Request: fold
Amino acid sequence: MLKLDILVLSVHPDDAELGCGGTILKHIAKGKTVGIVDLTRGELGTRGSAEIRDKEAAEAGRILGLAVRENLAIPDGFFENTREYQLKVIAAIRKYQPEIIITNAYHDRHPDHGRANKLVEESSFLSGLRKIETTDSGKIQEAWRPKQVLHFIQDNYIKPDILVDVTDYWNTKVESIMAYGSQFYNPEWDDEPQTYISSPEFIRVVEARAREFGKSINVKFAEGFTSRKILGVDSLFDLK
Ligand SMILES: [Zn+2]
Reply:
């Protein structure tokens, strides 16, 4: 069994790269094992197709150095926080037994993000209840509850509870985002309809946000996260 230190469970392939690509890279560099389970294949995206997104996600995962990347193929756009999908997410959590789960923002301009956040957060709790039975390859899975569930920040500004310095990993994060050639600014895709995220401005805004967060802790680039739990540290000197 592959046990992960961090599992990112987010709704569209590319959410993880945008929301926490630098944090993923940093923890892998520190020897942690990190994987991404995408909930959907992003098949409703205006540009590209599910097949193209699959290939792009695999390439982005290679750039990040993930131990695993999986897709639950839940329907993009129309999923709800139902028992059927909770059981799928619970099975993924129990399969990888992560200490930390990172998921979508509390709320966002794209309604999938807030709904995915609810689905993953509730499933993370339910996954710890042993009377909820799930199987993996015919074997009954053990109950598992992660220590922390963190939420990255997406398009809407949400005040972060913690910031992670990702300065050394910024360029590689951007490379992983740009692996989604169909989604972000790419002159080769000029014939396709332009979208909110395909203009060159979008990635500049992503960078501006990371610079703004970085400034708060006196580093160049940072990623922000929120938590519904109060967070603690071993030492006050862990604080920046
Ligand atoms: Zn998304």
Remarks:
- The chain has a mean pLDDT of 95.
- The longest helix spans residues 200-216.
